[in-house]
Amino acid sequence: MNKKTLIIIGAGGHGKAVAEAAIVSGLAQNIEFIDDTYPKQLNVGAWPIVSSTDLLSTMSWGNRPVIVAIGSQAVRARLVQQLIDLGANLTTVVHPKAWVSEQASVGVGTAIMAGAIVGTGAIIGQAVIVNANATVDHDCTLGNYAHLGVGVQLAGGVNVGDEAWLQAGVCAGYRVCIPTGAVVAPGTALVVD
Fold first, then answer.
1. Residue 93 buriedness (CB in 10 A; 0-12 / 13-18 / 19+)
2. What's residue 61's pLDDT?
3. Helices (H), 13-155
4. Residue-by-residue DSSP string for 3-25
5. Which of 30, 65, 91 is the last residue before a domain boundary?
6. Among 43, 51, 71, 190, which one is least packed by beta carbons within 10 Å?
7. Does some domain include residue 192?
8. CATH of the domain at 66
């Protein structure tokens, strides 16, 4: 019997958390990392590091699922686009202790971590990070490659632009719009003017 293997690009803290989420959700039974510490570093915990990102174009992707688990929005965007160009099978990882409404839309390559909530009518773009205990309430929109840090709280109708990074504990009130590429400091409270 073939065991399901997930390829994760990025063997840092977020990569390890995504690996654990994939295992406990049943998405994968094995993990292989691709990380630029290779070949100096050959594993992260019990999981092997099998290659570096400069070798992506030499790999045979087939139908193996892959996700980019790197916090930097720009790096994540670049690597996801490279994988799309190579025909790789991008996948989404949702921790089983997260709750995602059946009426929400979640883009490919997204990671939704433990304790996160995604409400009805929410639209989450491609390769977004919704970190532990973050709330994306009803009718929010998160652009491609957006990154919600731990404990971010978005009230209904918030719009987060592409590649925006809301750091830990940011709280955005109803219908706040956060521009593309914005970096919002930890603990910031945002309200409509």
1. buried
2. 86
3. 13-25, 73-85
4. PPEEEEE--SHHHHHHHHHHHHH
5. 91
6. 43
7. no
8. 3.40.50.20
**Pair 123, 75 in one domain:** no
pLDDT in tens, the chain (193 residues): 357 999 999 999 999 999 999 999 999 999 999 999 999 999 999 999 999 999 999 998 889 999 999 999 999 999 999 999 999 999 999 999 999 999 999 999 999 999 999 999 999 999 999 999 999 999 999 999 999 999 999 999 999 999 999 999 999 999 999 999 999 999 999 998 7
Please tell me the distance from the alpha carbon of residue 134 to that of residue 123, in angstroms, as a whole number. 15
Report the number of distinct structural domains present in the chain: 2
Using the structure block, give the residue that is written with the tokens 């089983």.
96
Q: Do residues 138 and 118 touch, judged by C-beta distance below 8 A? A: no
Per the CB < 8 A criterion, the answer to whether 134 and 150 are in contact is: yes
pLDDT score recorded for residue 80? 98
Within this chain, do residues 97 and 182 fall inside the same structural domain, yes or no?
Answer: yes
Residue 1: predicted pLDDT: 39
Residue ending a domain, among 91, 117, 137, is 91
Q: Are strands 141-142 and 123-124 parallel, antiparallel or unpaired?
A: parallel
> Which two tokens mark 141?
């929109």
Report the alpha-carbon distance of residue 69 to residue 9 in Å, rounded. Answer: 6
- If asked whether residues 77 and 112 sit together in one domain, one would say no
Residue with tokens 């109803």: 174
